[in-house]
Amino acid sequence: MDGSDRPEGPRRGRPAKDEAITRAARAVFGRDGYARTTTDAIAREAGVSTRTLYKHFGSKERLFSVVLAESAARVADAFAEYVERGLREASGPEERLVAVGRALVAHRVDFPEHFALVQMINTEGPHFPRELLEEWQEAGPLRVRGEVVRRLEELTSEGLLRISDPRRAALHFIALATFEASTRSAEGPLTGEEITDMVAAGVRAFLDGYRSAEG
Protein backbone atom coordinates (compact mmCIF):
# COMPACT_ATOMS: atom_id res chain seq x y z
CA MET A 1 0.00 0.00 0.00
CA ASP A 2 1.19 3.54 -0.65
CA GLY A 3 0.60 6.90 0.97
CA SER A 4 -2.61 7.48 -0.99
CA ASP A 5 -4.28 4.67 0.97
CA ARG A 6 -3.60 6.20 4.36
CA PRO A 7 -6.25 7.86 6.49
CA GLU A 8 -6.34 11.66 6.39
CA GLY A 9 -3.70 13.41 8.48
CA PRO A 10 -4.48 16.28 10.88
CA ARG A 11 -7.72 16.01 12.78
CA ARG A 12 -10.19 18.77 12.11
CA GLY A 13 -10.16 21.63 14.56
CA ARG A 14 -6.76 20.85 16.03
CA PRO A 15 -4.56 23.97 16.40
CA ALA A 16 -1.92 24.27 13.68
CA LYS A 17 0.89 24.69 16.21
CA ASP A 18 -0.10 21.50 18.01
CA GLU A 19 0.02 19.66 14.68
CA ALA A 20 3.39 21.16 13.80
CA ILE A 21 4.87 20.23 17.18
CA THR A 22 3.58 16.66 17.24
CA ARG A 23 4.63 16.07 13.63
CA ALA A 24 8.12 17.37 14.39
CA ALA A 25 8.31 15.38 17.63
CA ARG A 26 7.37 12.16 15.84
CA ALA A 27 10.20 12.69 13.36
CA VAL A 28 12.84 13.76 15.90
CA PHE A 29 12.01 11.10 18.50
CA GLY A 30 12.06 8.42 15.81
CA ARG A 31 15.38 9.65 14.43
CA ASP A 32 17.30 10.45 17.63
CA GLY A 33 15.63 8.36 20.33
CA TYR A 34 13.94 9.60 23.47
CA ALA A 35 17.00 10.12 25.68
CA ARG A 36 18.95 12.12 23.08
CA THR A 37 16.04 14.24 21.88
CA THR A 38 15.77 17.73 23.32
CA THR A 39 12.77 20.03 23.35
CA ASP A 40 14.95 22.63 21.63
CA ALA A 41 15.49 20.24 18.70
CA ILE A 42 11.76 19.53 18.42
CA ALA A 43 10.93 23.24 18.58
CA ARG A 44 13.42 24.01 15.79
CA GLU A 45 11.98 21.21 13.66
CA ALA A 46 8.45 22.53 14.25
CA GLY A 47 9.39 26.15 13.61
CA VAL A 48 8.19 27.31 17.03
CA SER A 49 9.86 28.54 20.21
CA THR A 50 10.69 26.17 23.06
CA ARG A 51 8.44 28.32 25.22
CA THR A 52 5.53 27.63 22.84
CA LEU A 53 6.25 23.89 22.98
CA TYR A 54 6.09 23.89 26.79
CA LYS A 55 2.95 26.03 26.73
CA HIS A 56 1.17 23.46 24.56
CA PHE A 57 2.49 20.22 26.08
CA GLY A 58 4.14 20.95 29.43
CA SER A 59 7.08 18.54 29.23
CA LYS A 60 9.05 16.29 26.92
CA GLU A 61 7.51 13.21 28.52
CA ARG A 62 3.98 14.50 28.03
CA LEU A 63 4.71 15.41 24.42
CA PHE A 64 6.12 11.96 23.76
CA SER A 65 3.07 10.33 25.38
CA VAL A 66 0.70 12.35 23.16
CA VAL A 67 2.72 11.67 20.00
CA LEU A 68 2.97 7.95 20.68
CA ALA A 69 -0.71 7.43 21.55
CA GLU A 70 -1.99 9.48 18.61
CA SER A 71 0.42 7.80 16.20
CA ALA A 72 -0.59 4.36 17.49
CA ALA A 73 -4.29 5.17 17.08
CA ARG A 74 -3.72 6.39 13.52
CA VAL A 75 -1.85 3.19 12.64
CA ALA A 76 -4.52 0.98 14.24
CA ASP A 77 -7.22 2.83 12.26
CA ALA A 78 -5.25 2.25 9.06
CA PHE A 79 -4.86 -1.45 9.84
CA ALA A 80 -8.61 -1.89 10.31
CA GLU A 81 -9.23 -0.11 7.00
CA TYR A 82 -6.66 -2.25 5.18
CA VAL A 83 -8.29 -5.42 6.52
CA GLU A 84 -11.76 -4.30 5.51
CA ARG A 85 -10.57 -3.40 2.02
CA GLY A 86 -8.68 -6.67 1.58
CA LEU A 87 -11.60 -8.82 2.69
CA ARG A 88 -13.95 -7.37 0.08
CA GLU A 89 -12.36 -9.51 -2.62
CA ALA A 90 -11.35 -12.50 -0.49
CA SER A 91 -13.14 -15.84 -0.20
CA GLY A 92 -12.33 -18.94 1.76
CA PRO A 93 -10.25 -19.06 4.94
CA GLU A 94 -6.85 -18.86 3.25
CA GLU A 95 -7.64 -15.78 1.15
CA ARG A 96 -9.28 -14.04 4.08
CA LEU A 97 -6.34 -14.72 6.36
CA VAL A 98 -3.89 -13.57 3.70
CA ALA A 99 -5.83 -10.29 3.53
CA VAL A 100 -5.40 -9.86 7.29
CA GLY A 101 -1.73 -10.83 7.10
CA ARG A 102 -1.04 -8.41 4.25
CA ALA A 103 -2.68 -5.64 6.29
CA LEU A 104 -0.35 -6.43 9.19
CA VAL A 105 2.68 -6.07 6.95
CA ALA A 106 1.33 -3.05 5.04
CA HIS A 107 0.56 -0.91 8.06
CA ARG A 108 4.13 -1.44 9.29
CA VAL A 109 5.56 -0.47 5.91
CA ASP A 110 3.35 2.58 5.45
CA PHE A 111 4.09 4.19 8.82
CA PRO A 112 7.90 4.05 9.19
CA GLU A 113 8.08 6.98 11.64
CA HIS A 114 5.66 5.28 14.01
CA PHE A 115 7.51 1.98 13.97
CA ALA A 116 10.78 3.82 14.52
CA LEU A 117 9.14 5.02 17.75
CA VAL A 118 8.13 1.44 18.58
CA GLN A 119 11.68 0.22 17.97
CA MET A 120 12.93 2.99 20.23
CA ILE A 121 10.57 1.88 23.00
CA ASN A 122 11.90 -1.66 22.69
CA THR A 123 15.43 -0.30 23.07
CA GLU A 124 14.84 2.41 25.69
CA GLY A 125 12.00 0.83 27.65
CA PRO A 126 13.33 1.68 31.14
CA HIS A 127 13.08 5.41 30.35
CA PHE A 128 9.29 5.30 30.15
CA PRO A 129 6.70 5.12 32.95
CA ARG A 130 4.33 2.18 32.99
CA GLU A 131 1.30 4.42 32.44
CA LEU A 132 2.74 5.77 29.19
CA LEU A 133 3.38 2.28 27.84
CA GLU A 134 -0.10 1.12 28.83
CA GLU A 135 -1.67 4.11 27.06
CA TRP A 136 0.30 3.27 23.90
CA GLN A 137 -0.68 -0.41 24.06
CA GLU A 138 -4.37 0.43 24.42
CA ALA A 139 -4.28 3.00 21.61
CA GLY A 140 -2.54 0.79 19.07
CA PRO A 141 -1.14 -2.72 19.56
CA LEU A 142 -4.06 -4.07 21.58
CA ARG A 143 -6.55 -2.67 19.05
CA VAL A 144 -4.67 -4.33 16.19
CA ARG A 145 -4.53 -7.62 18.05
CA GLY A 146 -8.23 -7.30 18.89
CA GLU A 147 -9.06 -6.89 15.21
CA VAL A 148 -7.11 -10.07 14.41
CA VAL A 149 -8.95 -11.89 17.20
CA ARG A 150 -12.27 -10.72 15.76
CA ARG A 151 -11.44 -12.02 12.30
CA LEU A 152 -10.31 -15.38 13.67
CA GLU A 153 -13.48 -15.65 15.73
CA GLU A 154 -15.55 -15.02 12.59
CA LEU A 155 -13.85 -17.90 10.80
CA THR A 156 -14.25 -20.10 13.87
CA SER A 157 -17.97 -19.33 14.15
CA GLU A 158 -18.34 -20.32 10.48
CA GLY A 159 -16.76 -23.69 11.26
CA LEU A 160 -13.65 -22.96 9.16
CA LEU A 161 -11.15 -22.82 12.03
CA ARG A 162 -10.77 -24.82 15.23
CA ILE A 163 -9.73 -22.34 17.92
CA SER A 164 -10.27 -22.63 21.66
CA ASP A 165 -8.16 -19.63 22.68
CA PRO A 166 -8.57 -16.80 20.12
CA ARG A 167 -6.10 -14.48 21.85
CA ARG A 168 -3.32 -17.04 21.77
CA ALA A 169 -4.21 -17.99 18.21
CA ALA A 170 -3.97 -14.31 17.23
CA LEU A 171 -0.42 -14.15 18.57
CA HIS A 172 0.46 -17.27 16.58
CA PHE A 173 -1.12 -15.82 13.46
CA ILE A 174 0.64 -12.46 13.74
CA ALA A 175 4.00 -14.15 14.22
CA LEU A 176 3.58 -16.56 11.30
CA ALA A 177 2.08 -14.03 8.88
CA THR A 178 4.64 -11.28 9.44
CA PHE A 179 7.93 -12.85 10.51
CA GLU A 180 9.42 -13.59 7.09
CA ALA A 181 8.49 -10.24 5.57
CA SER A 182 9.76 -8.37 8.65
CA THR A 183 13.06 -10.25 8.54
CA ARG A 184 13.57 -10.04 4.79
CA SER A 185 12.69 -6.33 4.59
CA ALA A 186 15.95 -5.59 6.41
CA GLU A 187 17.74 -6.82 3.28
CA GLY A 188 15.95 -4.34 1.02
CA PRO A 189 12.49 -3.31 -0.22
CA LEU A 190 10.04 -6.10 -1.01
CA THR A 191 7.60 -6.17 -3.91
CA GLY A 192 3.89 -6.64 -3.33
CA GLU A 193 4.13 -10.07 -4.91
CA GLU A 194 6.94 -11.10 -2.56
CA ILE A 195 5.01 -9.90 0.48
CA THR A 196 1.89 -11.80 -0.59
CA ASP A 197 3.93 -14.97 -1.10
CA MET A 198 5.56 -14.68 2.33
CA VAL A 199 2.28 -13.93 4.07
CA ALA A 200 0.57 -16.82 2.28
CA ALA A 201 3.29 -19.22 3.43
CA GLY A 202 2.76 -18.11 7.02
CA VAL A 203 -1.01 -18.42 6.66
CA ARG A 204 -0.68 -21.99 5.38
CA ALA A 205 1.48 -22.87 8.39
CA PHE A 206 -1.18 -21.33 10.65
CA LEU A 207 -3.95 -23.28 8.93
CA ASP A 208 -1.99 -26.53 9.39
CA GLY A 209 -2.55 -26.07 13.11
CA TYR A 210 -5.96 -24.41 13.21
CA ARG A 211 -8.03 -25.43 10.20
CA SER A 212 -11.15 -27.37 11.09
CA ALA A 213 -12.19 -30.55 9.32
CA GLU A 214 -14.85 -28.53 7.46
CA GLY A 215 -12.40 -25.76 6.47
Secondary structure elements and their pairing?
Blueprint: H1 16-32, H2 39-46, H3 50-57, H4 60-87, H5 92-110, H6 112-124, H7 130-139, H8 141-157, H9 166-184, H10 192-210
Helix pairs in contact: 1-2, 1-4, 1-6, 2-3, 4-5, 4-7, 4-8, 5-8, 5-9, 5-10, 8-9, 9-10
Instruction: Tell me, rounded to a whole number, the average pLDDT.
Output: 88
Topology as H/E string?
A: HHHHHHHHHH
Briefly note the CATH topology name: Tetracycline Repressor, domain 2
Name of the CATH superfamily: Tetracycline Repressor, domain 2
Low-confidence stretches: 1-13
Please name the CATH architecture: Orthogonal Bundle
Question: How many β-strand stretches?
Answer: 0
Q: Tell me about the biggest sheet?
A: none
Query: What would CATH call the class?
Result: Mainly Alpha
Computed structural class: mainly alpha
Helix content: over 70%
* Total of DSSP H or I helical runs spanning 4+ residues: 10
Tally of distinct domains: 1
* C-alpha geometry: elongated
Distance between the termini: 29 Å
Which value, in Å, is the CA radius of gyration? Answer: 19 Å
**What is the strand content?**
under 5%
Describe the structure.
Mean pLDDT is 88; it is low at 1-13. The chain is elongated, with a radius of gyration of 19 Å. The chain has one domain: Tetracycline Repressor, domain 2 (Orthogonal Bundle), CATH 1.10.357.10. It contains 10 helices and no strands. It is mostly helical. Helix 1 (16-32) packs across helix 2. It comes from Microbispora rosea. GO terms for molecular function: DNA-binding transcription factor activity; transcription cis-regulatory region binding. Residues 15-75 form the HTH tetR-type domain.
